[in-house]
Amino acid sequence: MPDRTQQPPIQAIEGLRLPAIPVETLDNGIPVYVVNMGTQDVVKIEVIFNAGRPYEHKQLVARATGAMLKEGVAGLDSAAIAEHLDYYGSSLSTPANIDTTNIVLYSLNKYLPDVLPLVVRLLSEPLFPQHELDTFIQVNRQNLQVDLTKNDTIAYRTVTELIFGSAHPYGYNSYPDVYSALTRNDLLQHFERCYTADNCQIIISGKVEASALKLLNHTLGRAIPRGQRLDARPIIQPATARQTLLPNPDTVQMAIRVGRHLFSRHHPDFAGMYVLNTILGGYFGSRLMENIREDKGYTYNIYSVMDTMRFDGCFYIATEVGNEFAAQTLQEIYTEMDLLRTEPVDEEELMMVHNYLMGSFLNMLDGPFNVSDVVRTLLSENLPLSYFEDFVGEVAQVTSAQLQTLAQRYLDPKDYYEVVVGAVDMLAK
Questions:
Q1: Residue 11 and residue 13: Cα distance in Å, rounded?
Q2: Dihedral sign, Cα of residue 151, residue 154, residue 159, residue 162
Q3: Residue 197: how many other CB atoms lie within 10 Å
Q4: Torsion from C-alpha of 221, 224, 228, 232, nearest 10 degrees
Q5: For residues 357 and 395, what is the distance between their CA atoms, to the nearest angstrom?
Q6: 417 in helix, strand or coil?
Q7: pLDDT tens readout for residues 355-390
Q8: Rg (CA), the chain
Q9: pLDDT tens digits for range 165-205
Q10: How far apart, in whole angstroms, are the C-alpha atoms of residue 133 and residue 128?
Q11: pLDDT over 80 at 428, yes or no
Q12: Which of 18, 75, 128, 302 is most enclosed, with most CB atoms within 10 A?
């Protein structure tokens, strides 16, 4: 029996790698990544199309097309589709992603023959009914009106537009008139151009049976047509003005975003910057949290984010603070950035962050659905499956000297956009 009065020894987490992921190929050339790790009789099928913003011919058409896939096929309206899935205890979603459109199906293995053919119909003969499109436009216009009353939403929209440009797929913002300009023909054109086998990848995870793979080939492997493989190379057009103050005087808090252009996961500095971001504001014990929340009490939450996409990326610090604390909060943000540029991170803090990140990576490998999420991220950002192990190894080897060099390179205030939304006249007081 173990001695419960003694703390077990702390052991480093090592050797993290993705399990072997076999890749099958359907008759129409679609690769299928098989994450066969499940113990329960459940399977998840995620169909990924390169059909996001970088591949649009018109703004918001990617989001609208993905959202409207479930709204009807010949002989079945949206209610009948939902009822069919519910009857078999399955769920189907089309989460909005900036680079891809994903169709995610959860089903018991025994009911997969009953629900997968419906998914095939949605991906081969969607109707995009006009009345459903009208409802989509109306609902999103109304939701947008509500969102545009929120300081944090306005701040995020503004900083990304400043970083990438108002016409860039990662920088443009939705407006009521952009929604109203969408037509059914726009959706059909986007669907026919992007939803092809040559722009598609599939991940199947859970308790994967041979019959499921065979069924995939007999359905999606035959129904999704071949097409031209799409590519994109969006070019940023960043703003020149570095500070933007947007008044919203009838609010008790100001939203702050301090951000800059960065890079995608392909960049050689990504792993080191990932660690640096964690130290600055990437977890609950970060420097920004300790200083601005715990010591100063200016805010309930403050964080920093590396937002990575397939072709590019950005970095920003975000918080909401009481109007009277906005100026001091901005000053403390730049103070923490300057400390990382001028003083090396001590070994104790670096070890704590390394251990925290290794625990996070370990959680990413906990179960088939988590592993499938990792695979999806790699595929969506055009990275090999070997990237995960290489990235974990790089993170584990990051040194204090490397972090200071990266801080000097990427935490210089002159490279940052500053956005403040709220009672901005108080900043001058």
A1: 6
A2: negative
A3: 22
A4: -100
A5: 8
A6: strand
A7: 999 999 999 999 999 999 999 999 999 999 999 999
A8: 24
A9: 999 999 999 999 999 999 999 999 999 999 999 999 999 99
A10: 7
A11: no
A12: 302
Q: CA nearest 286: which of 253, 318, 321? A: 318
Asked whether 175 and 145 are in contact (CB, 8 A), the reply is no
**What long-range pairs does 10-14 form, CB within 8 A, spacing at least 24?**
12/355, 12/358, 13/355, 13/358, 13/359, 13/361, 13/362
Q: Which residues pair with 317 in a beta bridge?
A: 258, 304
Location of structure tokens 């920003």: 316
SS3 288: helix
Which residues, including other chains, have CB under 8 Å from residue 151's CB and lie 6 or more apart?
A: 248, 251, 253, 254, 255, 320, 421, 422
CA 204 to CA 34: how far, in whole Å?
A: 5
| DSSP, residue by residue, 192-223 | HHHSSGGGEEEEEEES--HHHHHHHHHHHHHH
Query: Tokens 């604390």 sit at which residue?
Result: 325
> Regarding beta strands 42-49 and 101-108, do their DSSP bridges make them parallel or antiparallel, or are they unpaired?
antiparallel
If residue 72 lies in a helix (H) or strand (E), which one and from where to where? strand 72-73
Record the tokens describing residue 362, joined without a space: 């370990």
* Percent of the chain residues topping a pLDDT of 70: 100
Going from the C-alpha of 350 to that of each of 12, 258, 277, the distances in angstroms are 14, 24, 12
Pairing of strands 253-261, 417-422: antiparallel
Per the CB < 8 A criterion, the answer to whether 110 and 41 are in contact is yes
Give the side-chain half-sphere CA count within 13 A for 68. 30
Is 265 in contact with 311 (CB distance < 8 Å)? no
Contact 222, 30 (CB under 8 A): no
In Å, what is the CA distance from 61 to each residue of 7, 46, 343? 57, 21, 47
- What band does 303 get if pLDDT is binned at 50, 70 and 90? very high
Length of the chain as a residue count: 429
* Residues with Cβ within 8 Å of residue 340, at least 6 apart in sequence: 276, 279, 280, 287, 403, 404, 407, 411
pLDDT given for residue 429 in this prediction = 55
Given a contact cutoff of 8 angstroms between Cβ atoms, the answer to whether 63 and 261 are in contact is: no
Mean pLDDT of 337-349: 96
The dihedral over CA atoms of 301, 266, 229, 376, expressed in degrees to the nearest 10, equals: -50
Tokens found for residue 110:
């025994």
> What order of strands is seen across the sheet that includes strand 200-206?
23-25, 31-36, 200-206, 42-49, 101-108, 91-93
